[in-house]
Amino acid sequence: MANFNSIAATGMSIERLLNKAFSEPPVPVNSGTTKAFLIRTEDFDQASNTPTITRPGLSIFLYRVDFNKAMRAAWSGVSYHDGVSHLPLDLHFLLTPWANNAEDEHAILGAAMQCLDSFPILSGPLLHQKGGWAANEAVQLVMEEISTEAVMRTFDSLACDYRISVPYIARVVRLDSRLASPPPPVTTLITGKEPA
Questions:
Q1: SS3 assignment for 139-196
Q2: Backbone phi, then psi, for 125, in 5-degree steps?
Q3: pTM
C-alpha cells in the first residue's frame, strides 16, 4: 500500500533510472558522466553558494501535483468498501539538461527521453522502496502535451532564464492511508438508523 512517501519515491525512481542510463555508456562521453538529480524551485538560483545543479547533468523538477481526474471517482468507491483512502495523483515534472555547450545538452536530453521511452512503466524493483508500494502498483511515465509558452511561463517564476526542457507526467501515483473510522453501512446512510 503506497504511503505518503510515494511522491518522493516516484522522483527518486526516475532519478535512479536515468542515472543508470547515463552511466552505460557515459553521456556525454567527452565532458564526464552525466548525473540526474532532483531539484527544488530555489535550486534554479545559480548564484547560490552551494549550487545543486551540476554540469553535465539533468535536473528533475516537480512543478505541479494534481489529482488524477479519470481515477478519482473509481478510487473513492474503493475507499468506501475497504476502509482505506486512495488519492490518485498525477505528478508533473520538467526535465532540463545542463552542460557547457548546446551539443552536450541535446545529447543529455536525447538520452533521457530514450530511457523513459524504453521504460515507460515503473513497477517492482524500478520503484524506490521508500514509497511502500504494493506488489501490483505501477507508475506510468508519459510526455506531457503542454505548449512552449506554458513551459516559458513556468521559468518566469524561477530564478533562471528559460532553458530547453521536456515535461513528463508520472501517473497514477496513489497515496493510501487507513480511514480514521470505517464508513457506515449503506443502509445507515439511507435510513439514518443502524442495522438490527
A1: EEEEECCCCHHHHHHHHHCCCCCCCCCEEEEEEEEEEEEECCCCCCCHHHHHHCCCCC
A2: -70, -15
A3: 0.85
